[in-house]
Design brief:
The protein is an alpha/beta fold. The chain has nine helices and 18 strands. Helix 7 links the parallel strand 15 and strand 16. Helix 3 crosses helix 4 and helix 3 packs across helix 8. The longest helix has 15 residues. The radius of gyration is 19 Å and the shape is globular.
Length: about 325
């Protein structure tokens, strides 16, 4: 079957290790099921895999891709939860949980096999492309906002780095949930788009906000960390799920954190139950993932190049014709 896969690891030039071509079809295994992939979305996790983060040489070649929607063996339209072994289903009792492609072949292919427990019904209201955007970036944003930040309608939130998948999801979900959402970006066009999607206002990175906020959604890391901490009101919460600009900020702002009793919460992905809630939320409210571009699987390299350059707003989706 045709697939996009990591053939080599290159920390400095990750796209050098990306190959497109034929790979073996999935084999049957007890407790697992095979899904015919209709759509799969790109995540920065895929680039990190090509750099060797969470993916070792011994696992190569590895088909990339965490997220997918498609048709299961019974003809049902389904969405995949991409955390394998969350509660031990389909794997050994002592195996730690992992994200698909850290140990098991991924979704950038005609077919993928996952534990039966990881398959959810796709709401009829969502297209395959829309549903394929939800299991990683949108689920991450959902958990950051509603589980880890604990915000409620009427609260204020700053979303750093408008344009990325998680940040875009946080803006749309926050608006739909009745939050006052502020956003930042270095790019004027992305700031304008953030406002169109529901942000009260979007500012240059590092700009002073009109008010201190209840929570900050942080995925940028070192470049925005100080601004994130300084933008919180006393007792506020900073939730971080990524560090695309690097993990080591020039100043940790520890004095401000303890003096204002701020909370810093790490967040990774989300649970199957939260994905079910997110799917239901989108179906009921009309909220839809922001898709930058849909490409056929054989043009996957173009999608990877755009994601690596940061020249996108929302998700890139790969489809099987």
């Amino acid at each position: 079957m045709f697939a996009a896969y990591a053939a080599r690891i290159d920390p400095d030039r990750p796209l050098e290790g990306l190959e497109l071509g034929e790979r073996p079809a999935p084999v049957d295994r007890p407790g697992w099921t095979t899904v015919n992939v209709r759509a799969a979305s790109l995540n920065h996790h895929d680039l990190w895999s090509l750099r060797g983060v969470g993916l070792g040489q011994e696992a190569l070649p590895m088909i990339l891709g965490c997220d997918a929607a498609g048709i299961d063996q019974d003809g049902n339209e389904v969405v995949l939860h991409s955390v394998i072994g969350e509660k031990g289903y389909g794997v050994g009792t002592k195996e730690r949980r992992s994200i698909l492609t850290e140990k098991y072949q991924g979704t950038f292919a005609e077919q993928v096999t996952v534990p039966e427990w990881n398959v959810l019904r796709k709401p009829k209201e969502l297209s395959f492309a829309e549903a394929a955007c939800l299991p990683t970036a949108w689920l991450t944003a959902y958990r950051m906002l509603f589980t880890n930040a604990g915000v409620r309608p009427g609260d204020s939130v700053l979303v750093q780095g408008a344009g990325g998948g998680v940040a875009t999801a946080a803006i749309v979900l926050g608006k739909a949930a009745g939050l006052r959402v502020y956003a930042t970006s270095r790019d004027e066009a992305k700031r304008k788009r953030a406002v169109e999607l529901g942000a009260v206002e979007a500012y240059e990175s590092g700009a002073r906000l009109p008010e201190r906020v209840d929570a900050v959604i942080e995925t940028v890391g070192a470049a925005t960390w100080s601004h994130s901490v300084k933008s919180l009101k006393p007792g506020g919460t900073l939730v971080i799920s990524g560090a695309t600009s690097g993990p080591n900020p020039p100043s940790a702002e520890l004095t401000r954190i303890f003096f204002l009793e701020l909370k810093v919460v790490g967040s990774t992905m989300g649970s199957k139950d939260e994905l079910e809630d997110l799917l239901a939320f989108c179906a009921a409210t009309g909220v839809r993932p922001v898709i930058d571009e849909v490409l056929p699987l054989d043009r996957a390299r173009e999608g990877f190049e755009r994601m690596a350059s940061g020249d996108l707003f929302g998700k890139i989706v790969l489809t099987n014709q």
